[in-house]
Design brief:
CATH class of chain A: Mainly Beta
CATH topology of the largest domain in chain B: Cytochrome Bc1 Complex, Chain D, domain 2
Strand content of chain A: 35-45%
CATH architecture of chain A: Sandwich
Largest interface: A-B, 41 and 45 residues
Strand content of chain B: under 5%
Number of domains of chain A: 1
Oligomer: heterodimer
CATH architecture of the largest domain in chain B: Orthogonal Bundle
Structural class of chain B: mainly alpha
Strand order of the largest sheet of chain A: 3-9-8-5-6
Structural class of chain A: mainly beta
Number of strands of chain B: 3
Shape of chain B: globular
Strand order of the largest sheet of chain B: 2-3
Chain lengths: ~100, ~350
């Protein structure tokens, strides 16, 4: 029981410290090719191009899809589990970002 | 951590109250904050975005050699690698039709019509994904798919190897191209891919204009170039010297083909197809993945009205353009400056 309480407190502390990271989509590329974050952190994807983008992952356990992202729009994605997500733009397949969640 | 705390996602959702959108997915979307920042259009700056690359890319594990190109070209034009002995790669990818077939839909084994138009292989050295739906990640992966497809060349790959091996002259070609590797599906695919990478559109009047020869294209085409980059917004998908973003878009054609969506079941990919190059496009009609537009004039009309099918996956870039008749004519004039007078291809003598 004590361990559970400690673990829960640790988790709450972790979320209290959760960070928001920023990735820019510009010139059909993510501003980084890889990023390491912690469980509970989020990434804000900001479309700085003048064309529509998409951000998705089909990595097992890390699936998400922000659908279509208009020019200038920003989309926040929270990563709730440890693992590695291969994040891509379905519209522009060359765009790729590896997100490692620790 | 997640395994230790099965209530993790609930906590995440509860702590993510500052976001909007889908908490279940942990995603939120903010409104546009700087859409389409407008700046003065500068033709010279835009021309610089269309400069041809200095060389053709080849992958490190399949570098160009003349021997590989010759072998690949020979296989590409050899109909004996199909089960009927009558269909070669060049049957559909005919150099006389700018490496397409000039048909609404491709014709496959038994003269049966395929369900999409034949895409050109022109400038595919720069492609990221192949096929209209992007289901192949390299030319090496793509090359054998039509060979073994029951609806296309209908030839099992082991049977293909048997046929090629039985033609004695191929032995030397393979040994020179891939020493010690023999006739295998892999060497056949690598050779064909090497040849395909050499199929590059030559310098067109547009390239001479970009290089500074002002008289290389008519004034109407220059106006068309400006429209291409601004009001008509064609360049949002047909970008760069090869006039493609190598991307996938639903451009509003009224058929039920899910395209890229059949490979990647995301909303944005439903009815999405790969952006084709516009190089030499006036030699390649009819147009679109389904061959539904007969001429470049028809294609311009399609985009001018913002596509035919309005659905959630329709690309945001496909909107009514309200082009005048003069603007449409200027765009057409510009598109025709992208065609090069390429040297004819030499069809090899097939090994017996």
């Amino acid at each position: 029981m004590l361990m559970k309480v400690i673990a829960c407190a640790s988790l709450l502390t972790r979320f209290a410290l959760a960070e928001e990271h920023k990735i820019i989509q510009k010139d059909r590329a993510f501003s980084q090719t890889e990023i390491t974050i912690h469980v509970g952190d989020s990434i804000l994807f900001k479309n700085a191009d003048d064309v529509t983008h998409n951000v998705f992952s089909v990595s097992p356990g890390m699936e998400f899809d922000i659908r279509r992202q208009a020019p200038g729009a920003a989309s926040q994605v929270q990563f709730k589990k440890q693992g590695t997500a291969e994040v891509r733009c379905s519209i522009h397949p060359k765009m790729k970002l590896i997100v490692t969640v620790k | 951590m997640a395994k230790k705390f099965p209530y993790l996602s609930v906590l995440v959702a509860a702590l993510a109250v500052s976001t909007v959108g889908s908490l279940r997915l942990g995603i939120s979307v903010a409104a546009n904050s700087n859409s389409d920042a407008t700046s003065a259009y500068n033709r010279t700056e835009w021309k610089a975005k269309y400069v041809r690359p200095p060389s053709t890319p080849f992958p490190d594990d399949n570098r160009f050699t003349q021997e590989r190109e010759l072998l690949g070209r020979t296989l590409f034009f050899d109909p004996r690698i199909s089960s009927s002995g009558t269909i070669s790669c060049a049957t559909c990818h005919n150099p006389g039709f700018s490496w397409g077939d000039g048909l609404t839909k491709g014709i496959g084994n038994g003269m049966r019509e395929l369900h999409r138009r034949t895409p050109t292989i022109l400038n595919t050295a720069w492609s990221d994904l192949l096929f209209w739906d992007g289901r192949a990640e390299s030319l090496e992966e793509q090359a054998l798919v039509p060979v073994s497809s029951p609806t296309e060349m209908n030839q099992p790959l082991d049977a293909m190897v048997t046929v090629v091996t039985s033609k004695f002259g191929y032995k030397t070609l393979f040994e020179c191209a891939y020493p010690g590797e023999g006739v295998t599906p892999k060497t056949v695919a690598r050779a064909i891919a090497t040849f395909e990478r050499t199929v590059v559109s030559g310098r067109a009047p547009f390239d001479e204009w970009v290089s500074g020869q002002e008289s290389a294209i008519p004034e109407a085409a220059k106006r068309g170039f400006d429209l291409f980059n601004t009001k008509a917004a064609c360049r949002k998908c047909h970008e760069g010297w090869n006039f493609t973003d190598n991307g996938f878009h639903d451009v509003g054609l009224a058929d039920d083909d899910r395209g890229r969506g059949s490979q990647l079941p995301l909303e944005a990919m439903q009815h999405a197809f790969k952006t084709p190059t516009l190089r030499n496009s006036d030699r390649r009609g009819p147009y679109m993945h389904d061959g539904s537009e007969r001429s470049l004039e028809d294609v311009i009309e399609l985009y001018d009205r913002g596509g035919k099918a309005k659905r959630p996956s329709l690309a945001l870039e496909v909107v009514p353009l309200c082009l005048t008749a003069q603007e449409k004519a200027d765009l057409l004039s510009f598109l025709r400056t992208l065609t090069s007078n390429d040297r004819g291809i030499e069809v090899p003598t097939f090994p017996r």
